[in-house]
Amino acid sequence: MAEEHLLTKSNLKYLYWTPAQQLTHHTVTGCNLNSGDLLGTGTISGTEKTEYGSMLELTWGGKEKIQLPSGEERVFLQDGDSIRMTGACHGDGFTIGFGDCEGTILPALEDSEFW
After folding, report:
1. What is the pLDDT of residues 8-17, one digit of tens each?
2. Which of 5, 61, 78, 113 is a good FRET partner for 91, with 20 to 30 A between their CA atoms?
3. What whole-number distance in Å separates Cα of residue 34 and Cα of residue 27?
């Protein structure tokens, strides 16, 4: 197993709209909001390159390579690459974690019953 490498670390403070503004935008045109609905922020990118929120931004659209500790380079994810995203909110004396979201890129199937 390859060693882990931190690609980016951002902060909710860089959102263009606050969560309250996002909720207002969602409902102001009459879109119903129900208990259990999930709202997402999309990509959160900071002001420094280490805070960019996607591989597309980190590599300037594939123009700049990311050097991994193993010596490999990436501009986009490749088959076999694993990614883990984590998130937490920190308050005065407490932390609320959201657990890990983890996955591995698998190669496309040549013959699939779905195509």
Report:
1. 998 888 888 8
2. 5
3. 11
